[in-house]
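Posting this for the archive.
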Amino acid sequence: MSGYDDRPWLALYGDQPADYAIEFDTALEMFRAGVERDPDGVALRYFDGTITRRELDELSDALAAGLLARGFGPGDRLAVYLQNVPQFVIAMVAAWKAGGIMVSINPMSRARELSYLLEDSGATVLLSLETLYDQVGREVVPGTGVRLVLTTSELEFQTRDDERLFAGTTRQRHEGTTDFAEFVAVHRGRVPPPVGLRSDDVAFLTYTSGTTGVPKGAMNTHRNVVFTAQVYRDWVHAGRDGAIFGVAPLFHITGLIGHIAVSLLVPAPLVLTYRFEPQVVLDAFAEHRPAFTIGAITAFTALLDAPGFSKAHVASFTSIYSGGAAISPTAEQNFLAATGKPVHSAYGLTETTSPMTVAPFGAPSPVDPVSGALSVGVPAPNTVVRIQDDEGRDLPLGEVGEIVAEGPQVVAGYWGKPEETAAGLPGGALKSGDVGFMNAEGWVFIVDRKKDMINASGYKVWPREVEDVLAEHPAVRESAVVGVPDEKRGETVKAFVSLRPGASTTPEELIAHCKVRMAAYKYPRSVELVEELPRTVTGKILRRELRGR
C-alpha cells in the first residue's frame, strides 16, 4: 500500500469535503458572477487610482468589442507585454469576452525571446507598454504574425507618478501602433456578443522558464483557472479578509492565479504597484492595508532588509504565502521573527496552474528531521501527488523520487508540441522534474530539481540541502550550489554566495561552517562570493548560468 490513495492529509482540512466541487465552467463566468455580487466594489487599486468591478466590466467590454471589429475571433491569441498594471487585467478579461486566449509575456524578455513567444503562440494582437515597445517590440513585431499593436503607459489609471519608479518616464507614440486608451474610448459602451467558451478551452498560455531548453506554452484551461482560484480562496484564505497585494509578477502563473484570478472570484480588491521595488511596496502596504499576498521568499527577504521596515508594515495581513522558490527553515524563522507572522508554503508549476500542494491555512509546515527540508504542503483538494522512480513506478512513502501530480489544475498540454506533451504529461499526469518525498501524514518535501543533482564520487548531493546549511550562517543572504567537473570525483560541490548588507566572511569560513554540519561528500569544496545571483524575474536561481561560469 503506497498511501497515496488513502489521502491521509484530508484530515488536515477539517470539515472540507474530499470531493471538491468546481463552481464555474469558465473563468469568464467566474468574473461575471463577481461583478454581479459587488458591481461598485473596487476591483483594482493602482497607486492613487481605482477601478470598480463595473468599470472593469465596461473597459473589458470595450476592448473586446474593438478586437472583434478588427478581426479577432474565437481561439485567437492576444499577447500582453506588461508589468503589473491594470491594463493586464483588462486585457485578460477582454480576450475571454472575444472568445480568445491571452498570452502572458515576461516584461524582461528581449528581442530574441519576444520574437520566439509571438511566433510560437501565433499571437495576432500585442498589447505592450510604450517603453517596452520602444526598447524591444518595434524591432521584433514587423517580422511576426501580429496584425494589431496596442501600446499603453505605466502612467495610466493613476496621477501620483512615483519618482522611484517613473522618473523620466514620458508618453511615447510609435508609428504603426494604436493607443490603448483611445482604442478603448472609441468602443466604450459597446457590448460584445456572447461567446461559447467551454471549461476545457484554453484561457491563457503561460510559458515555462526555459531553464532546461526552449520555453513551452502551457495551455491553462478555464477549468484549471477556476479550480486553482478556488483553492486560493478556500485553502489559503486569499481575499477573504480584505485586499490582495500583487507581489508576484502578473505574467507568471503565481500572479495570474494567486493575484488576478482569485481577486475576480472572491471578489476582492487587487493592489498593483507596477513592479517590485521594496520601498514602494512597503509604502503601499501602509496605504492600502492588504490582507493577503503570495510571492517568492526572495521578495519577502528584500522587504525585511529594506530601510525602515517594521512589523507595522505587515500588520494588516492575515495570510502570507510563498511560492516560486523553496523556503529554507531559516528563512521561515527569520520572517516570523521579523514580522510576527508565519509565511506558509505553496508549491506548483506553470503546468499545474499554480498550486499542486499547499500548507493549509493556519497549519505550520513540518521540517523533515533527516534532510532539514521544510515541507511545501499537502496535496490540494481533488489532487493526487505521487513519488515515482525513473520507470514511473510508485515509491513507498518516505522514499525519494520524482514528484508527479494529477488533478483538475494540470494543463491539457503544451501549445503545438505533442511530443513534449506526451513526454512531460503522460496520461494527463505531470512529471514535475522535481525530486522529493511524502511522509506518512501526506506532507510533501522537495529535495531539489532532478537535473541539478550532483554526482560526487558516486554519491548523490542535492544542492538545496547544502544551501539550507549555508543559510544558517549569519552572514549569508542567499546561495546557489552547483556541480563542477572534478578529475578525481567526477563532480564536486561549488557554492556561489551573496552576503547580507554590511556582513563579511570568507570562503574558507563558509566551507568550515558546512564541513562540521554535513557528510564529507556533501560540503562545498569551493565557495565564490558574488554580489548577486543570476535569477529569473520570478525568483528562480539560474544554476545553468552559474555552471557555465
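The chain is about 30% helix and 25% strand. The first helix runs from residue 27 to 37.
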